[in-house]
Each structure stands twice: as structure tokens, then as C-alpha cells.
Specification:
With 344 residues, this protein is an alpha+beta fold. The chain has helices at residues 4-12, 36-43, 47-56, 71-87, 91-100, 102-110, 116-121, 139-148, 152-174, 176-212, 227-240, 254-260, 278-290, 337-341; strands at 26-28, 31-35, 66-68, 135-138, 219-222, 244-248, 268-273, 295-298, 305-309, 312-316, 328-332. It has 2 domains: 4-174, no CATH class; 219-341, Endonuclease, Chain A (2-Layer Sandwich), CATH 3.30.870.10.
Length: 344
């Protein structure tokens, strides 16, 4: 309990030049507070003397008026004050920091909030930077100090502190929409960053699959001279077949048999063509005697070429024997092989 002479020292202390009080206001546990050490400096007394005066009137300082910091809170508040002193932060930058980035300040301080009885006995070990756990006074607690420290100097100091709290509230109220927009922008940027990351991942997957050949183009054009590219495209489609290959092409020769021989074992191959000449029939007979047989059926009702790989139908703009000699297009059709063959 504070001695009478200590209380008198507080009440008779000369008014000290007030620094930027706004810089001393911190947000701890979601409340705007000033620490005992900073209040003592404003009153021009020792922190010990200030706290003794408060303890003598402790019934006037409930939890929402005053509370003791944890070790983590004390360390954090000390680093905040050092930063503010180095940068000479004005009221607007201080408030904006408190409002725009509350998570980095408030969440940390809310963790592990101790009870009042536990706080009373908590001390930091000898040799550490913080030798005791300071008390934080809310605006109501600081106002209550006027009834404890009843000197004109203490009252004048408290008036200036109250004005600082009021100025901060007015600034926040006047710029609430700005802060809300800043918060919306922050959330939007985070959301866009997440979407961009997902888009980048998908693009990387597409490029990877393009590189390893696992992505099949639905449509495209081969130009004259791209004989090898067109040949690779068709043979890759042939190798994909698991059950059947159906080709509708009015003009074929023995090179088409060579392409169809790229199919996997057990995959059936059938060709519908208009010009089944005697020479082509002889070539087919010799081919089937040595390789997996290909069935060739006369058919003259199609002008275009179609290549069916299992249940997928491709429209091919050139005969397979002429791939790459002239421009031709290909496109994946929106119908199945059975639907196409039902029209034959």
C-alpha cells in the first residue's frame, strides 16, 4: 500500500511537457490503453508511486478499467513503443496501423489472458529486459485516476489524455468508410492472389500435359509441308484405341494399312472406302496374311473423311494417304461412333 508521502508526491508533481499522447495509446486485448510507465512519465512521477496510489484505491479499478499485461503482451508493447519513438508517428498513422492491421496486434495480445489474481503474482525473471509486468489503463481507468490523484496538475494532465482519446475516436469515425474500403481491398487482393495461384497451377498442369502429350487437341489445322506432324498426330490417335478403329475415307492405299497397324493388339480396324480397286484388294490380302486383319468395306455416300477411335469421332479434312501435302483441318465431333455408323 502506498505511503502518504508517496501520494502527496504524485499530487504535488509539477506538470511535465506532454509528448504526443496519441503515440502512447496502444490496442491491447481489443482495448485502447496507456501503460502505467507512460502515465507515470506524463505525471512526472515514478511508476512505482503511481501503482501504489492505484493499489490503495484498487476497488475503483475493475478489469475494464485496468489490467496487468502478460509477459508476451509486455514484450510486444515495448517493441511497439520503440518503433513509434523511432518513426515519430503522428496520430493518423498510429490509428491507421491499429485499424488496418488489427490481427497482427490484437490477436497476439488476446492469447492467454490471465486472471487478475494470477497477474498480481506474475513476475519476469531477473536479467530479462522487462523486470515487471506493467498495468494497462483504459480510458475509464485513466479518468478514474483523477479521483485518486486529486491535484490540479494531475487533473490537467488527465484532461489532455481524455482529449487524445476523443481525437482518436473522431478520426476513426470520420474515416470509417476509408478503413472499411481498405479492408475490402485487402481481402480482395488476398482472394485474387489465391485465384491467381490456382490459375498458375492449372496452367502449369496444362503445359506439363502438353509437353508429355497427354492433352489432345480438339481441333486444329495442319499446313502444307507438315507431313511428319500430321502423321504423328494420326498415329497417336490410332495408338489410343482400345476396342476399335473405324475409318471413312474414299481414297486409301497401302500407306493407310501401315498407319492402322500402329494400333494395340486386339483392337479391330475397319475401313469404309469408295475406290476398292483390284490393286488395293491385292494389297489388303497380302497385308492380312501377315498382320492383324483390316476389314475394308465399299462405301460411296461420304464426301468427307472421318476417323473413329473407340467412341470418339474426328472429322479429317484430308485423306490419310495425303496427310501434310496440303492444308487440312481436323476437329473432334460431338457425336459417338455408334451414332455415326447408324447412318451407314
Amino acid at each position: 500500500m502506498a505511503k502518504k508521502k508517496d501520494i502527496e508526491k504524485v499530487e504535488s508533481a509539477p506538470l511535465q511537457p506532454l509528448e504526443n499522447i496519441e503515440n502512447l495509446i496502444q490496442v491491447i486485448r481489443g482495448k485502447q490503453v496507456i501503460l502505467d510507465r507512460d502515465l507515470a512519465r506524463l505525471y512526472g512521477v515514478e511508476t512505482r508511486v503511481l501503482n501504489q496510489a492505484v493499489q490503495r484505491n484498487i476497488e475503483r479499478f475493475p478489469e475494464d478499467f485496468m489490467f496487468q499485461l502478460t509477459k508476451e503482451e509486455a514484450e510486444f508493447s515495448k517493441s511497439q513503443i520503440v518503433t513509434l519513438n523511432e518513426e515519430d508517428t503522428n496520430i493518423k498513422s498510429q490509428i491507421a496501423t491499429s485499424y488496418e492491421f488489427p490481427r497482427s496486434q490484437i490477436v497476439t495480445l488476446n492469447e492467454g489472458e490471465p486472471s487478475r489474481s494470477q497477474n498480481a503474482t506474475m513476475k519476469v525473471k531477473q536479467g530479462q529486459n522487462i523486470k515487471y509486468l506493467p498495468y494497462a489503463f483504459t480510458e475509464n481507468g485513466i479518468a478514474m485516476l483523477s479521483s485518486v490523484l486529486r491535484s490540479p496538475i494531475a487533473i490537467a494532465t488527465n484532461i489532455q489524455i481524455m482529449r487524445a482519446f476523443t481525437a482518436m475516436r473522431r478520426f476513426i469515425a470520420a474515416n470509417a468508410q476509408v478503413f472499411q474500403r481498405l479492408e475490402v481491398i485487402e481481402h480482395t487482393q488476398l482472394s485474387l492472389a489465391a485465384h491467381q495461384e490456382e490459375a498458375d497451377r492449372k496452367f502449369e498442369e496444362i503445359f506439363r500435359r502438353l509437353d508429355d502429350g497427354s492433352v489432345i487437341q480438339k481441333q486444329g489445322i495442319f499446313y502444307d509441308g507438315q507431313i511428319f506432324d500430321a502423321y504423328v498426330f494420326i498415329t497417336e490417335r490410332v495408338r489410343e484405341a482400345k476396342k476399335r478403329i473405324v475409318l471413312i475415307d474414299n481414297y486409301i492405299d497401302e500407306t493407310v494399312f501401315t498407319i492402322l497397324d500402329k494400333r494395340t493388339q486386339g483392337t479391330k480396324a475397319k475401313v469404309y472406302t469408295k475406290n476398292l480397286t483390284p490393286q488395293l484388294s491385292l494389297d489388303l490380302e497380302k497385308h492380312n496374311a501377315q498382320y492383324a486383319p483390316i476389314e475394308v468395306v465399299p462405301f460411296d455416300r461420304s464426301h468427307d473423311r472421318f476417323l473413329c477411335i473407340d467412341d470418339t469421332v474426328y472429322h479429317i479434312g484430308a485423306s490419310l494417304k495425303d496427310l501434310g501435302k496440303k492444308w487440312f483441318a481436323f476437329a473432334k465431333m460431338e457425336l459417338t461412333t455408334d451414332e455415326l455408323l447408324a447412318k451407314i
